[in-house]
Amino acid sequence: MTKKTSLALLIGSALFIGGCSDGKDGKDGEDGKPGGGGEPGTSGLHIDMAAEAIATINNAAYANGIITLDFELENKEGVGLYGLSSDNQFHDFRFSLAQLQTAEGTELKQWFSLLNAPTNDEGTTFEQGFESIKDCAECLVDHKDGTYTYTFSTNLTSVTDPAGIVFDPALTQRIAMEMQFEYDSGHELAENAHYDWIPATNATEGVETRDLVTLETCYSCHQPDSLKAHGGRRLDMENCQSCHNGLVTDPNAISVELGHMVHAIHMGENREGKDAQGNIVPMPYTIAGYGGDHAFDYPAFPTKPTMDCTTCHVEDDSLADKDLWLANANTNACTGCHTDSPAEHKSDKNPELACTDCHQVDHRKFNKPYESAAAYDVKFENVKVENGAISFVAKALDSEGAIVSGLSHKVYKYTAPVVQVSWNVEKDGAIGDDTADSSPWAREIEFLRPTSDKPNPDHVLPDSGVMTVTAKDMGIPDGVSVELMPIFSICFDAQGVDVDCDSDKVSGSAYIKSEPHRINMPADAQGDVVARRAILDEAKCRDCHSAEIRHKDNGLVACEACHTSDQGLQDDTVDGVKQFRGAGFAWKVHKASGHYMNKKYGGSGTVMKTDCATCHITDESGNVDGIELGRASEGRTYVFPTSKTDGTPMYASADAGACMTCHWGHESDAMLSHFKSNGGYYGEDKALAIEATSSEACAVCHSPAKLMEVHNK
Q: How far is it, in rounded angstroms, from Cα 296 to Cα 307?
């Protein structure tokens, strides 16, 4: 049968069937039943697809012992993040509670955690507990648009807290939220949020606070990443406060309250107290962690005076309680620095008395010498350079312009009155040549009082305070710029008045921060004096190190004047064990304890390689132009030991040497080949290093932006 025949039969059949109809339509069927309610649609982005998460607690309500809160999650574009779930293995999301209690009759305000859990078998030490969404799936409601509701499963009026803390709805309560999602891909989402309120009144404004410091102040010294505590889970100061509160300790009953812990950690190796026999011994803060006991027995607070509390307790009007630390109300904070058996006590501490029962100390008094010295100056007169020799008269002046007595000049080790002489200031200072390295000792003029051991010093520090140098031969080249850097430390009494350093009235000493005296300085096309190239931002250094960074501290220019890049190597041999290191300023800064940036090789984590801007100058746009290469003066080189135990000097051209101040000790054939192929040098011949400084082309590729990019990996 053909296709045409089949089609004809099909049409005929259709007509036959149609002919059977009576032409009337059938009745309409009954309406179907309404469908069931569907799942609400979603709006936004699934949280597992997010690059970051920003959390906000918008509201909280309290009724019959139960707290309910509304919060939202969004990305930085403001798109809501839905999909938070107790069933998702990566969604580690939890809440904690703390209340702010005031000690009766005192100014002490302290957070105390709720939901506490014991940390030892005896049930005598505690830590803050949490409610996790994984423990209560029905507590969390996802509104599918980035907003959520969480209802605490704990009834605060009926629960018995193991630490004995009783919830009071009339007090300021803090809800702290933390999330940390660690995906198999390596991607991580971490965020904190908090909400302070009074449940009894539902008030969020005008509530009691305990705002003494900000996390931004911590960033003066710490890299933000280094303060992501507990594996990156704790990010905000408010979350730190509510967890490290007045109740919690480690299993050995060592307080981990934030005030105590921070003070104790920052005392580092300087924390000491008395043992059972009354001997003063080191007592570094030691706590039990998940990996065992950890002692903070290393340098940890790089400020002088050590008691410069204002490094952290800054004048910040945004802090409601910025002056609370001056009340000396928190004895636990006192023992953070001074221990429970203070070394300063002539007798044993009475256990029945708190520190504040006897002591009311304004710790700002330790800053008085530095505040006074800031108003002092140094004046040079009759400065003359002839035939390589220098002559001058120098005197320190107080805030009224009067000459400071020579008896008020501190003479002790590195602190004797010194004038550091440099030349070729605009060319990176008095660097050496191909026959000799630079020596700060050869360029230093020290003034001393006659003693029985040294009755005739080369340069006398007279009682009058007027110091004179006549034709001191220093080999200064003809016609070059010359700098006289005064390094004078003055003794002060408790009122900030300079006094005889042998007097029992001495409260402390401080260096005068005085501009160096310069002559024969060149000018640029605009008529501005050309001095040292700008590399570091001293204000940033002071934010962390405070008034005194190191010995001979008359600012960074004093550091640069002494520690030139080719200063000879330093031999730290101890008990016959060789230990060599560089002495140039870049080496000392990059390798300093707490500064060593390369985490791969055991860096501190305080300042890491990812943030050159911590110390270096930046322009108005935030570009770190202080690390710009290709600016070194002709003849500049760096000197390094061959190894830690081999003091044979190795020299580097300027840009290669700048890199080596961090990378020394980890140099590879590939690195050295890269230096050489781009005109740089690293080897034993200083003359070749000097020659290479004028030809190396590192700056062609390694712009400040490129350097920051590679160091951020």
A: 18
Of 158, 116, 153, 112, the C-alpha closest to 135 is 153
Pairing of strands 66-74, 54-63: antiparallel
User: 82-96, 418-432, 489-503: which has the minimum mean pLDDT?
Assistant: 418-432
Q: What is the pTM of this model?
A: 0.83
- Side chain identity, residue 188: E
Helix (H) or strand (E) holding 174: strand 173-182
Residue 8: the pLDDT is 47
Q: How far apart are CA 99 and CA 198, in angstroms?
A: 9
Residues paired with residue 321 on neighbouring β-strands, in sequence order: none
692 within 8 A of 679, measured Cβ to Cβ: yes
From first CA to last CA, the distance across the chain in angstroms is 78
Q: Render pLDDT for 35-66 as a digit per residue (tens, 0 to 9).
A: 666 666 788 999 999 999 999 999 999 999 99
pLDDT band at 254 (very low <50, low <70, confident <90, very high): very high
DSSP letter at 527 equals S
The CA distance from 510 to 387, in Å, is: 36
Rounded to whole angstroms, how far apart are CA atoms 367 and 487? 19
- In the structure encoding, which two tokens stand for residue 395, read together? 């005197």
Contacts of 484 (CB under 8 A, 6+ apart): 380, 383, 390, 392, 394, 419, 420, 421, 516, 517, 518
The DSSP output letter for 577 is B
**Chain centre to alpha carbon of residue 184:** 30
Of all helices (H) and strands (E), which one includes residue 53? none
CB 409 within 8 A of CB 490: yes
Burial class (CB within 10 angstroms; exposed 0-12, middle 13-18, buried 19+) of 185 = exposed
pLDDT in tens, 621-647: 888 989 999 988 888 899 999 999 999
CA 310 to chain centre: 15
**Class of residue 443 by CB neighbours under 10 A (exposed 0-12, middle 13-18, buried 19+):** buried
Identify which has the larger pLDDT, 142 or 327: 142
